[in-house]
């Protein structure tokens, strides 16, 4: 079957003529600069030949745009050329091209040399004479090279300094005092990390059994839960050096510094792994390496379960800028390449062997265990979390009651104190969502209080712990209202919260303390702590929670006849709880969504708020004497602890 040919697509006239015009203009410009001699130079003849070939090529292309026979002839010539070309071995063609390239390069090199000397003519003669010329001008060449080298050394030292400052911290083995016994309240996570460290010491056995060691483990959880401490304890247990990488280690002002830091990290890993038989690398806030934008988990302080008297002020949502890039653009890719290429042959000897065509030497075994910590697990790039990299995630969450109890006992065992097990248990129970770092700080603050107040110096009492805990959790007390009428109003406000809370939710929450002392933006508070760490609530308990928030409103209306602006925090809190109930299907509909008619959504939410308020108002009316008694005690003493609050309310029949 005869092959059908198609005409070439016509070329724009300017595109057809632009190369030829450029070469002609260049020839004219060179002749204008240096009349007559240019026409006799080899460069001029090369230029004229190029112009002639370009004109012939464009004519042939034009013919293939207007004539089918011209296209057929061109295809025929092409097939004949390919047949003749394929008769020659591909390696021979490659060697010929390389030889031709060397000859042309040799000639161009000699031509460039001829521009700087009159002792030779022609490219080949000057290229052969260049060695002698270099020897004769060694002093001048050395001066030039020394000047260039000095400038490059200054730049190199600057870049080296930029890669060293604030980059990594190398912790040699045997210098770490932290052990896994110092990690309190995180038994599950601690056991998982110990398992990984022990396997690092036996990776040869794992390999012989047909498996492989996970390269990295991601520790996720809120700040202060012990992720960095676990990394140090892991290095202590494994007798391997620890490379600590702070969050801003790869940040750089100049382009390219971040890549140098990644390269330097790879050198550190290979160096210390070869020297000590393994190395542990810990990345603090690993999401900084390359995140795509996400909410911070545990970034804000742990929510405190309070009923506060506070003035309502609108809170503006922060502007969240998402997306990766910026000064660390490319750092993640460079790090992943380094992480995956750790077992590849490298070094000067291997480069020489590869250049000579020999097989490179096998690289030394690199034992490395990567540990990453973040409180933004959703912001960590998926490429980091895939299997074979940081493929195993270990959750280091807020410790539960048993964990907090172990943490308090651990840190209190390092100081002198006069508290019994019941006192320590009370602090652990009431310190809901307390992290290890926060508990350590509270114990230390209690110790400082003993010196600051000059009593039992160095021996912590229960009151010292209470003061430290209140200070750390709720802020420093700033006194009470000066006006007695305002002080009474705040006392009624907080007493309303306490009575409704004790009446409806004493099986779920214990009252920690009630206070009318100002702390931060609050004029008083009733702090409660959960009896257990379970989060499940029934609908009646959710409504009771709304009633507790609105207990202050009911108490103010009952005793004062009107509300105050101290209800500004309780109203939004109750509204938020009702909004969540409606969204989750606890209103008039079953659907758990907020995508519905706004008026209908508002009616359901208002019905829940009204239900909660009527419940609170009924309790305040039924236990008016209890509210008055507790308010009078708060007005007189300003702060009443939970056991005393319970005694007052039980005396007036609230607990019946």
Shape: elongated
Distance between the termini: 104 Å
Mean of the pLDDT scores? 81
DSSP E strands, number: 12
Strand order of the largest sheet: 1-3-4-6-2-7
Major sheet attributes: 6 strands, mixed
Structural class: alpha/beta
At the fold tier of CATH, the topology name of the largest domain is Rossmann fold
Radius of gyration, in angstroms, nearest whole number: 40 Å
Please work out how many helical segments DSSP would assign. 24
Number of domains: 4
- Ranges with pLDDT <50 over ≥5 residues? 292-303, 311-327
CATH class of the largest domain: Alpha Beta
Specify the CATH homologous superfamily of the largest domain.
P-loop containing nucleotide triphosphate hydrolases
User: How much helical structure, as a percent, in the residues?
Assistant: 55-70%
CATH architectural label of the largest domain: 3-Layer(aba) Sandwich
Strand content: 5-15%
Task: Detail the topology: elements first, then pairings.
Elements: H1 13-33, H2 37-40, H3 42-66, H4 68-86, H5 90-114, H6 123-136, H7 138-164, E1 169-171, H8 187-201, H9 203-208, E2 216-220, H10 227-238, E3 242-245, H11 257-276, E4 279-284, E5 306-310, H12 331-340, H13 348-356, E6 368-374, H14 382-385, E7 392-395, H15 401-412, E8 416-417, H16 421-430, H17 436-452, E9 459-460, H18 462-474, H19 484-505, E10 509-515, E11 522-530, H20 539-559, H21 570-583, H22 598-622, H23 624-637, E12 639-641, H24 642-651
Parallel strand pairs: 2-6, 2-7, 3-4, 4-6, 8-9
Antiparallel strand pairs: 1-3, 5-11, 10-11, 10-12
């Amino acid at each position: 079957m005869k092959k059908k040919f198609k005409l070439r697509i016509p070329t724009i006239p300017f595109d057809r003529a632009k190369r030829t015009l450029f070469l002609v203009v260049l020839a004219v410009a060179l002749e204008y600069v240096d009349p007559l001699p240019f026409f006799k130079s080899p460069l001029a003849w090369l230029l004229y030949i190029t112009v002639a070939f370009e004109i012939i090529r464009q004519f042939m292309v034009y013919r293939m745009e207007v004539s089918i026979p011209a296209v057929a002839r061109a295809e025929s010539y092409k097939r004949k050329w390919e047949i003749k070309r394929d008769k020659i071995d591909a390696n021979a063609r490659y060697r010929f091209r390389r030889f031709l390239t060397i000859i042309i390069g040799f000639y161009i090199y000699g031509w460039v040399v001829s521009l700087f000397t009159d002792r030779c003519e022609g490219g080949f003669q000057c290229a052969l004479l260049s060695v002698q010329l270099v020897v004769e001008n060694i002093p001048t060449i050395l001066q030039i090279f020394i000047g260039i080298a000095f400038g490059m050394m200054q730049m190199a030292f600057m870049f080296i300094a930029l890669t060293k400052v604030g980059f990594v911290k190398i912790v040699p083995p045997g210098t770490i005092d932290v052990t896994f016994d110092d990690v309190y309240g995180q038994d599950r996570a601690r056991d998982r990390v110990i398992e990984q460290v022990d396997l690092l010491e036996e990776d040869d056995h794992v390999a012989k059994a047909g498996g492989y060691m996970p390269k990295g483990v991601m520790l996720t959880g809120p700040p202060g839960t012990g992720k960095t401490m676990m990394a140090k304890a892991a290095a202590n247990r494994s007798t391997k050096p620890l490379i600590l990488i702070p969050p801003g280690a790869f940040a750089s002002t100049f382009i390219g510094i971040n890549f140098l830091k990644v390269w330097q990290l790879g050198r550190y890993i290979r160096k210390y792994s070869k020297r000590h038989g393994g190395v542990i690398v810990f990345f603090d806030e690993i999401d900084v390496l390359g995140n795509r934008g996400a909410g911070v988990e545990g970034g804000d302080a742990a929510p405190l379960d309070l009923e506060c008297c506070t003035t309502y002020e609108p809170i503006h949502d922060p502007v969240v800028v998402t997306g990766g890039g910026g000064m660390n653009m490319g750092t993640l890719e460079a790090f992943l390449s380094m992480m995956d290429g750790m077992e590849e042959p490298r070094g000067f000897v291997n480069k020489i062997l590869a250049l000579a065509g020999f097989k490179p030497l096998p690289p030394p075994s690199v034992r490395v265990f990567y540990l990453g910590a973040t409180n933004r697990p959703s912001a960590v790039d998926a490429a980091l979390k895939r299997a074979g990299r940081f493929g195993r995630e270990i959750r280091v969450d807020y410790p539960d009651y048993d964990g907090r109890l172990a943490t308090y006992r651990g840190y209190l065992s390092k100081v002198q104190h006069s508290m019994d097990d019941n006192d320590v248990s009370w602090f652990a129970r009431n310190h809901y969502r307390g992290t290890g770092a926060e508990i350590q700080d509270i114990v230390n603050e209690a110790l400082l209080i003993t010196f600051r107040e000059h009593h039992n110096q160095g021996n912590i009492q229960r009151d010292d712990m209470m003061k430290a805990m209140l200070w750390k959790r709720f802020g420093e007390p700033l006194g009470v209202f000066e006006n007695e009428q305002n002080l009474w109003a705040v006392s009624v406000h907080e007493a309303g919260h306490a009575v409704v809370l004790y009446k409806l939710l004493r099986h779920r929450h214990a009252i920690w303390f009630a206070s009318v002392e100002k702390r931060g933006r609050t004029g008083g508070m009733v702090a409660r702590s959960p009896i257990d760490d379970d989060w499940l609530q029934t609908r009646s308990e959710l409504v009771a929670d709304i009633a507790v928030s609105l207990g202050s409103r009911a108490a103010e209306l009952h005793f004062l006849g009107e509300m105050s602006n101290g209800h500004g925090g309780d109203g939004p809190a109750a509204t938020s709880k009702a909004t969540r109930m409606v969204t989750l299907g606890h209103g008039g509909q079953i659907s758990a969504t907020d995508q519905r008619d706004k008026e209908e959504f508002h009616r359901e939410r208002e019905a829940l708020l009204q239900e909660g308020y009527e419940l609170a108002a009924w309790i305040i009316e039924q236990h008016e004497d209890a509210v008055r008694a507790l308010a009078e005690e708060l007005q007189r003493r300003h702060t009443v602890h939970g056991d005393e609050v319970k005694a007052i309310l039980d005396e007036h029949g609230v607990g019946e």
